[in-house]
Predict the 3D structure of the following.
Amino acid sequence: MAHVHSQVNQMSRLYLLYERRYNYTTPKSFLEQISLYSKLLIKKSKELAGKIDRLKNGLEKLRSTAQQVDDLKAKLAIQEVELKIKNEAADNLIKIVGVETEKVSTEKAMGRYNLLLVFLFLFRTFVYVI
């Protein structure tokens, strides 16, 4: 191949002398290098485009997740307020039930005392009758 290139270069010089025009020659290895570079450029461009798409999808997922977290935080704040109100109502109800239980216990004790008095009265009456 080197002989052919040298012959072409000689003819190019003659062409320049006679016609006053340039003729450039490029070695085949250089053309192959350009071809290889083009293929690598296309391959790497596709890889980068894929990575860019993957990154965009990941960022979109992060934005979506952040929005969902914000929504859940807002719902949690509302539910905490509702829970506090319901806990206060439950505490009040427990106090009322405690007071009512105390009243019922007192009335039950009074009822037992009255029942005992009635039995004693009946027993005395029965004993006096006999």
Observations:
- DSSP finds two helices and no strands in the chain.
- The helical segments are 2-19, 28-129.
- The two ends are 151 Å apart (CA to CA).
